[in-house]
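2024-03-11 09:14:02 DEBUG pipeline.ingest accepted 1 chain
2024-03-11 09:14:02 DEBUG pipeline.ingest length=162
2024-03-11 09:14:03 DEBUG pipeline.predict start
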Amino acid sequence: MNLSARDDAKRLNTPPLRGRGRGWGLSAEFLALLHKRAADMRRNPTEPEKWLWRSLSNGQADGYKFRRQSVVNRFIADFLCPQKALIVEVDGDTHDEAKDRLRDDVLGALGFRVLRVTNHDVMGNLDGVFAAILTALNATPDCWARPHPHPHPSPEGEGLER
């Protein structure tokens, strides 16, 4: 059976990949919807998101790479640095603080740190926002250096060198 790359990505029996949105225990249809919504958001960013992306893209943040509108679990993160498991959220006037707290708690339980900035901060003090992001990046240990439990561990002793 030959599946296209897109169809293969929708298969339910694939393991979750940290920060890539594939898996997460969500249905293929819901993941496809999230990825479509994220793509739409990348095509139509808000003005503050455009400004901040100009500062974060191409490794300008001390060489750390960021992804825009990245699917993480059942959420879409505005900016994600996978190496640090750092999510930067740009909040407008319509954000619900209770929902944001719940979302931050879920993402925190998954090992992500969330840094929230406002549209006003980005538009009025981009240098200060960028400095805060650099501080958070430097204060956060590399995600890849920390061991993460594998969702499907190998049987006892398998793969160990003797």
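2024-03-11 09:14:41 DEBUG pipeline.report Residues 13-22 have pLDDT under 50 and may be disordered.
2024-03-11 09:14:41 DEBUG pipeline.predict end
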